[in-house]
Backbone:
């Protein structure tokens, strides 16, 4: 339902559990407020602060961090971080392999890594960072190395230095699924 008020046009969405079931009581509303400028303000209203509210606040907080990180990366390097499959040091420069092609970044890999969302971007060696959203599978190949297969046919290997922490992280993520 779309309503227009004098100053604040807004959209309200009510969700329900399904056909014939009672509403879960979640309402989303957009209010246009020119006073905010380019900022977004989110207010959560509830009768009490309970587990559902805490979970919603946690998800919103994580999402805002991801959006800020992606926006910061996009502004600094003019690359959408959601499109990045792999970032690697290539001589003096850093190359970002994306779904749209390869981009050269004239900055140190450590500086690039600071701009990325650590929930999705993981360093697998001294010279490579992968985006877990594009991870197809991984396999132990011996000698303490892990072969990492990414979408778009990209294959990479972890260094022994990072292998243990990466293996633990992969196993944690697999357990959650």
Residues:
């Amino acid at each position: 339902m779309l309503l227009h008020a004098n100053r604040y046009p807004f959209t309200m969405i009510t969700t329900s559990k399904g056909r014939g079931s009672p509403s879960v009581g979640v309402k989303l509303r957009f209010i246009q407020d020119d006073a905010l400028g380019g900022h977004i303000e989110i207010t959560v209203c509830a009768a009490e602060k309970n587990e559902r509210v805490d979970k919603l606040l946690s998800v919103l907080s994580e999402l805002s961090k991801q959006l800020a990180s992606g926006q910061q990366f996009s502004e600094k390097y003019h690359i959408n971080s959601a499109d990045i499959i792999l970032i690697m040091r290539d001589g003096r420069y850093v190359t970002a392999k994306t779904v749209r092609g390869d981009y050269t970044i004239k900055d140190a890999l450590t500086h690039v890594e600071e701009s990325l969302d650590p929930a999705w971007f993981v360093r697998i060696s001294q010279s490579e960072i992968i985006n877990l959203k594009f991870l197809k599978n991984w396999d132990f190949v011996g000698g303490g190395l892990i072969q990492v297969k990414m979408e778009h046919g990209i294959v990479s290997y972890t260094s022994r230095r990072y292998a243990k922490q990466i293996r633990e992280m992969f196993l944690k993520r697999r357990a959650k699924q």
